[in-house]
Every structure is written in structure tokens, then in C-alpha cells.
């Protein structure tokens, strides 16, 4: 049994969605970042945290890749060329999409008000838009990023797509828009999104 700590409207979405896709049992503790229930497991106070056998695992990407590896789904095997391509996509999405959205969030509501630089959002939107063009060229021919098989990068990109809509970062590539519409329709993700409130 797994326990996921973190509100569903955070990067915990990724972990909850993977658990649902894998059909695994879990408990969900919707704790806020920096709350006592989070800091006791992650000194940085960030969510999500996955607890297994009393051991906390932090960072959403590490957690979902661990779950995919352990349960043999949503991933290609380590040491294969497909896994190298998968990991390359994961890193690209974290660097180009997640990082831009997180930086915008930091300068919107995370940092102390006197440290926020609101003008930075325009440059981040520019980077986010350019990255979409690169991604469109890297997308496979199937319904998922790597073709016929859903993998960890699909979870990261779809979560970033949802985050982008909330943050008013435009998704301009038609191929990406169609992809996100398909992914948002997945029953496992819809179940998690119902908890976001």
C-alpha cells in the first residue's frame, strides 16, 4: 500500500494519476506544501511525497518513474534505446515546460512579494511557445509521445498542459492541443482531476 502526500492540484497529480493508471491501491493525504505533515517527510516542504514501507520518496518525476519501473508499465526497460529516448523526453519536458511554469508560479505567488518580478512571465511564455515547436517535431506518430505506448513523459507533459491553461500560457501547436485533449479524456486522469476542486 502506498501513501501519497500532497494536494491533488499540485505535482501530486502526476503520482495519483500514475497510481490510477496502474490500478494500484493507495491512501491520499491532501496536505499543503510546507505543512507539518509534509515537512516531517521532506525538509524542503515540497509535495508530493510517496511513502512506501515507511520510506519517503520525494520529487514527482522520481516517484512516477519508480512506480513505472517497479510495476513494469508506463515505461520502457532501463538500458534500452527506447528508455534512453524516453528519458531524453522526460528531461526536455522538465527543462523546457515544467521549469518555465514553475518559475512563473514563483514570481506570481510563491516568492515573498518584494522578490517577485512580474515582467519575467513574458519571457517565460516566449520560451514555452518556442519549446512547443521543438516538441511537435519530437512527438511520435501514435496517440502518445513515443508512439503506441503511454510512458512517464506523457504524464509530465499532460500535467504541464493543465498547468499552462491555469497559468494562461498559450498552447499554440495544433498537434499538442489535440494530444492534450486526448490525454485529458483518460478516465484515470479525470478521476484525479475531480479531486482538485
Automatic annotation (TrEMBL):
<protein>
    <submittedName>
        <fullName>Glutathione S-transferase family protein</fullName>
    </submittedName>
</protein>
<feature type="domain" description="GST N-terminal">
    <location>
        <begin position="1"/>
        <end position="75"/>
    </location>
</feature>
<dbReference type="InterPro" id="IPR036249">
    <property type="entry name" value="Thioredoxin-like_sf"/>
</dbReference>
<dbReference type="InterPro" id="IPR010987">
    <property type="entry name" value="Glutathione-S-Trfase_C-like"/>
</dbReference>
<dbReference type="Pfam" id="PF13417">
    <property type="entry name" value="GST_N_3"/>
</dbReference>
<dbReference type="InterPro" id="IPR040079">
    <property type="entry name" value="Glutathione_S-Trfase"/>
</dbReference>
<dbReference type="InterPro" id="IPR036282">
    <property type="entry name" value="Glutathione-S-Trfase_C_sf"/>
</dbReference>
<dbReference type="InterPro" id="IPR004045">
    <property type="entry name" value="Glutathione_S-Trfase_N"/>
</dbReference>
<feature type="domain" description="GST C-terminal">
    <location>
        <begin position="79"/>
        <end position="197"/>
    </location>
</feature>
Amino acid at each position: 500500500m502506498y501513501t501519497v502526500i500532497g494536494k491533488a492540484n499540485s505535482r501530486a497529480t502526476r503520482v495519483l494519476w500514475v497510481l490510477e493508471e496502474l490500478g494500484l491501491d493507495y491512501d491520499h493525504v491532501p496536505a499543503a506544501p510546507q505543512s507539518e505533515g509534509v515537512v516531517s517527510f521532506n525538509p524542503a516542504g515540497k509535495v508530493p511525497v510517496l511513502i512506501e514501507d515507511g520510506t519517503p520518496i520525494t520529487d514527482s518525476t522520481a516517484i512516477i518513474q519508480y512506480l513505472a519501473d517497479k510495476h513494469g508499465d508506463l515505461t520502457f526497460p532501463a538500458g534500452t534505446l527506447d528508455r534512453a529516448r524516453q528519458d531524453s523526453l522526460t528531461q526536455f519536458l522538465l527543462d523546457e515546460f515544467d521549469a518555465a511554469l514553475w518559475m512563473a508560479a514563483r514570481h506570481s505567488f510563491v516568492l515573498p512579494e518584494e522578490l517577485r518580478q512580474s515582467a519575467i512571465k513574458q519571457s517565460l511564455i516566449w520560451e514555452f511557445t518556442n519549446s512547443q515547436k521543438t516538441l511537435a517535431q519530437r512527438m511520435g506518430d501514435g496517440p502518445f509521445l513515443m508512439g503506441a505506448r503511454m510512458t512517464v513523459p506523457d504524464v509530465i507533459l499532460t500535467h504541464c498542459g493543465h498547468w499552462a491553461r491555469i497559468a494562461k500560457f498559450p498552447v499554440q501547436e495544433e498537434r499538442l492541443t489535440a494530444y492534450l485533449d486526448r490525454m485529458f479524456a483518460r478516465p484515470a486522469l479525470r478521476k484525479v482531476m475531480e479531486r482538485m476542486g
